Fold this protein.
Amino acid sequence: VKTVKHVYEHVLKLPVTVWPDSSDVDKAAVRDANGDGKNDLHILQITYVEPFFRDTEQGSRCSWISRNTNISSFVYSTPFTKGKEPSRNRGVSVLEQCKRKTILTVETPFPCCTTSQEVVAKEHIMLNPLQTAIEDISSAADKLLHTLEATPVSMKVLTGVLQGCIAPQVHAGAVVVCHAFLKTDVKATKKLYGANRITNLQKNLRRFLDVCQKGLEVFVQLNNPTDESGPDLYQEHLIQAFDEMCAKIHPYIYEEEQSQLFRAHDRKDSARIDE
């Protein structure tokens, strides 16, 4: 960041202020911090963006080349809690965690010979806590599925992604999301967000568990510990964590009879893997 700041200051021959996060730039705050009442500000905001495809484009952008060329719109996300500053939300309940998606449209599609493009349009999409949770669960499943579709599958990458899905250490996992929206006062949650969105959350949780099970099966196949090395404790840890996650989520995403059936099926799968 310091290097980029220095380059811009050298080119512009003017002082440049670096905005520290992906929130909207507050010019008044920059003026106050610099003690400068001038309207002419030079602010540098550095953040990570991803290609953004609208619903009308999804059908025509299926191949790798179509999803990585001729891209005019990009998106980045900013988590926030109403009444609090963005990026100051650690430890906030998933019931309060919202997300603002900022979509930037550039003048000329990328890739382009000119690596710096002017932003010609900017729009915001606000996600409520349930929409944020659904998107996070769906993104985690997509990331794991993408890892499994690689040829060959990288054991190192798979281990990290699988750990983040089955036994997360930092962010709120699927169990926290499930219990927050589906365990208590579901009627009130449906009234607040709508029954269709609750159903969508259950659908995404089922897909998430299916992808995690596939990922765990591939991990066991690739891991292949030798008999002399004894039991693989990390593999056993992942299997146990997956079984516990399923036991805590199944009652809220399946009918009771299905939930009991799936729990019995999971126990059989775990026994087979252990053997």
About this structure: The CA atoms of residues 100 and 126 lie 5 Å apart. The radius of gyration is 23 Å. The first helix runs from residue 2 to 12.
